[in-house]
Amino acid sequence: MTLKPTKSREKPQPLLVRAKITKVKFPERCPVCLGEPEDLVSITVMESSHFDPSDDSSISSWGDGKDKVETTLAAAQGAATFWVPTCGIHGSRSLRSAPKRFVAWAAFFVLFYPGLYFALGIVNALHNPRPLLEPLLGLVVTASLLIVLAFWGYFPRAIERTLRIVRIDRHEDAVYMDIRNKEYGKLFLELNAAQADIVDKKGQPKPADKVQR
Ligand SMILES: [Zn+2]
Asked: How far apart are CA 65 and CA 82, in angstroms?
């Protein structure tokens, strides 16, 4: 079976799918590039009462699954953890994990004072005959560093944008997800054909004649 990677330029169409929490299986392909599986990442989802695919406030968090305590704690609070095979590039190394977020957050405090120092230097240079270039360069460098770190720590990675879990309902044994990669969506539906279906924006199953597989 040959699979062409989906073109990244193509505007991704959401595909809302419902599957059973206890039976869901993820294809042995990377959700982003459909590459061979080389890594396994975890996605932990908190149970939430509403279904709103457009709501981007994340109820899920990705991880490399190494933090067993965190996974166990989350499970005790009603969360479910799913394991998704990925390629080496889009796997656990690429995730914005808690330590990365912490580094980005800590960097803000570390860089805040140099930034302030350079900003005051600029103000000082504007009012007094002092060189302006030095504090200006300093401020630009500090600000750029902060922006890069903020992106690195907080910007959703390709995998998080491609495969998004919208909601879980333990009572119904249902997990709702938004799959942005059409090919991966097809593979997913094939693999889970017995228990997964396509749903509309309200989480209701689509009538069979409208389902395009
Ligand atoms: Zn990949």
From this structure: 10
